[in-house]
Design brief:
Helix content is 0%, strand content 49%. With 124 residues, the protein is mostly beta strands. It is globular, with a radius of gyration of 13 Å.
């Protein structure tokens, strides 16, 4: 069983930065592509970013491209999401997800394992 635990969320002012972490345990982390999704109040879960199992291939939603960066450290079994130039529209619960696919996917249904989420609140 794969377990994912997110951390790093919190309250930040508009224009600020946060770094989210997702620690993975239970299986060989390097065999899993990873994704970050978010869900704002009253909205559906949406794709944010993904990375292949090597970290060599990354993809981003248009809304975060140029501001967010996904990365992974296979030695630490951890994937990160650096959030820069945050705006109130980025307020959401952020989830990491994992599955044994070679490349990250923007589709939530392709990920079998999910964390519980970490709340990011951006004040104006």
């Amino acid at each position: 069983q794969v377990q994912l635990v997110e951390s790093g969320g919190g309250l930040v002012q508009a224009g600020g930065s946060l770094r989210l972490s997702c620690a993975v345990s239970g299986r060989t982390f390097s065999n899993y592509a990873m994704g970050w999704f978010r869900q704002a109040p009253g909205k559906e879960r949406e794709f944010v970013a993904s990375t292949s199992w090597t970290g060599g291939n990354t993809n981003y939603a248009d809304a975060v491209k140029g501001r967010f960066t996904i990365s992974r450290d296979n030695a630490k079994n951890t994937v990160y999401l650096q959030l820069n130039v945050l705006s109130p529209e980025d307020t959401a619960v952020y989830f990491c997800a994992a599955d044994r696919i070679a490349y990250g996917s923007p589709w939530a249904y392709e990920y079998k394992y999910w964390g519980q989420g970490t709340l990011v609140t951006v004040s104006s």
